[in-house]
Amino acid sequence: MPRTDNELSGVTLLGNQGTTYDNGYNPALLETFPNKHPENEYLVTFNCPEFTTLCPKTGQPDFGKIIINYIPRERMVESKSLKLYLFGFRNHGDFHEDCVNIIMKDLVKLMDPRYIEVTGIFMPRGGISIYPFANYGDADHQEMVKQRLLASFRNS
């Protein structure tokens, strides 16, 4: 069954031909819509292969890929708003580890997911690549939080 206008009332960026691109970090860009299947535990994955941020010390650009996996509860993040939010990091100066944690915390606050993880895979700088990983789970997913964190150590 198609989405109703009421279900889509908070989705303002999708289909908007007059989209403006924010010049900086702005979590207010994030929008949600209702999960039609909150009784199911299922995985949603976003892959942002062109993530860019700035070094907080030098102002030089850092390039990487951000992967977001989450198990929704009642609300889900709308993908165009997520894209615009992530693009806002282009002019944001922070370390890779900070960016990954900020993204995760903003999405937890926005959606209250059952489980979420954010991985950054950054291009080498000075011969070193950085792959930060942050995750969060509700009370029913604490074992998954531990397992996924340990698994990320083995995959590095």
3D structure, described in words:
- The chain has 156 residues and is of the alpha+beta class.
- The protein has a single domain, classed as 2-Layer Sandwich (GTP Cyclohydrolase I, domain 2).
- Helices cover 24% and strands 26% of the residues.
- The chain contains 3 helices and 6 strands.
- The strands form 2 sheets. The protein has a 4-stranded antiparallel sheet, with helices on both faces. Strands 1-4 form a two-stranded antiparallel sheet.
- A hairpin with a 6-residue loop joins strand 2 and strand 3.
- The chain is flat.
- It starts with 31 loop residues before the first strand and ends with a helix.
- 26% of the residues are buried.
Please, what is the average pLDDT? 91
Structural class by SSE content: alpha+beta
**Number of helices, where a helix is a run of at least 4 consecutive DSSP H or I residues:** 3
Termini separation comes to 42 Å
For the record, the CATH class is Alpha Beta
Query: Radius of gyration in whole Å, from Cα?
Result: 16 Å
CATH architecture classification: 2-Layer Sandwich
The amount of helix comes to 10-25%
> What is the CATH homologous superfamily assignment?
GTP cyclohydrolase I, C-terminal domain/NADPH-dependent 7-cyano-7-deazaguanine reductase, N-terminal domain
Strand/helix succession: EEEEHHEEH
Number of strands: 6
Would you summarize the structure shown here?
Helices cover 24% and strands 26% of the residues. The chain contains 3 helices and 6 strands; from the N terminus they run ββββααββα.
